[in-house]
Design goal:
By secondary structure, the protein is α/β, with parallel strands linked by helices. It contains nine helices and twelve strands. It has two domains: 1-86 and 168-232, Rossmann fold, CATH 3.40.50.300; 97-167, no CATH class. It has helices spanning 50-57, 80-84, 102-111, 124-136, 152-164, 182-198, 235-238, 241-248, 267-274, and strands at 12-21, 24-34, 39-43, 65-70, 73-74, 87-90, 170-174, 203-208, 220-225, 228-234, 252-257, 260-265. The structure holds adenosine-5'-triphosphate. Residues 12-251 form the ABC transporter domain.
Length: 275
């Protein structure tokens, strides 16, 4: 692989992407390059366009202007359904209503469906892979538990295992830790760290608005505000007080310890509030 530039092994290459809906510019000249083994955080306030951008990176929607190459395929020129089969997308709005056991929910990742298709039977290799992934994600004990009884944190980890069934080279996660209590969040983040170690070539993009929800294995970050990129690059530079304060339009102090990030209102701002 070449260093820099646009090598063939680039996982995502978005160049000056605009997305306009109902006359509103949701993404404005967004560019981003993701290479194998990189783990990106997509950060920004409510309504910044994070989910919209993830939809484009996941080959679920086309940009209005600009070019997007994902896993070597240019959106607009390749079959989006075919491309989607190679992308793991963890969507918190997974629309499963039946009491499918955890193991079967993971197996639906192989068929790309919500339910197990009639007459479909997993191969031995698929069963083995599902078991391994549930082990890595720490949900092996829930293989027989019905989806309807699983907690939000358990569901989240099951959905990540599901997204990994087709051995994707790209994994997209939209706010995987939202709504979890502190222990469930920590279990999920450890699972994501383990997963990244187990699949060193896989690239990931994780959306969140909470810096505390960033796994320690995050390598890069892109800050989005009102559809525009405020900063993008190595996490150590981008997840820092100055760029994050600019992105959220609020003075924020960022600290990093044991690889994890913590955010709080800047001291001057707190004094202002108290005074
Ligand atoms: N089809 C649409 N037509 C018009 N506006 C839309 C459409 N879809 C999304 N939007 C708007 O686009 C903006 C970006 O939405 P998006 O969900 O991508 O933001 P986000 O950064 O993921 O926000 P949050 O953190 O709140 O989930 C929002 O203002 C939203 O209301």
């Amino acid at each position: 692989m070449q260093s820099g530039g646009t090598d063939v092994e680039t996982v995502i290459e978005a160049d000056r992407v605009d997305l306009v809906r109902s006359g509103k510019t949701l993404l404005d000249q967004v560019s981003m390059v993701v290479r194998p083994g990189e783990h990106w955080a997509l950060l920004g306030p409510n309504g910044a366009g994070k989910t919209t951008l993830l939809g484009i990176l996941g080959a679920r929607r086309h940009p209005t202007r600009g070019s997007v190459r994902v896993l070597g395929g240019t959106l607009g020129r390749v079959d989006l359904r075919e491309l989607r089969a190679h992308i793991g997308h963890v969507d918190p709005r997974h629309d499963l209503r039946s009491a499918l056991p955890g193991r079967d929910v993971v197996l639906t990742g192989a068929t790309g469906s919500i339910e197990i298709p009639p007459r479909w039977r997993p191969t031995g290799a698929q069963r083995e892979r599902a078991a391994t992934l549930m082990e890595v994600l720490g949900v092996a004990d829930h293989a027989d538990a019905p989806w309807t009884t699983l907690s939000q944190g358990e569901r989240g980890r099951i959905l990540i295992a599901r997204a990994l069934m087709p051995e994707p080279r790209l994994l997209l996660m939209d706010e995987p830790a939202t709504g979890l209590d502190v222990a469930a969040r920590e279990r999920l983040l450890s699972a994501v760290d383990r997963l990244r170690r187990a699949h060193p070539e896989m690239a990931t993009v994780l959306v969140t608005h909470h810096l505390e929800e960033l796994p320690a294995s995050t390598t890069h970050a892109l800050l989005l505000r009102a559809g525009q990129v405020v900063a993008a690059g190595p996490a150590a530079e981008v997840v820092a007080s100055k760029p994050v304060s600019a992105c959220f339009d609020h003075p924020i102090d960022i600290e990093r310890s044991s690889g994890r990030w913590h955010a709080r209102a800047a001291a001057a701002d707190v004094a202002g509030l108290e005074g």
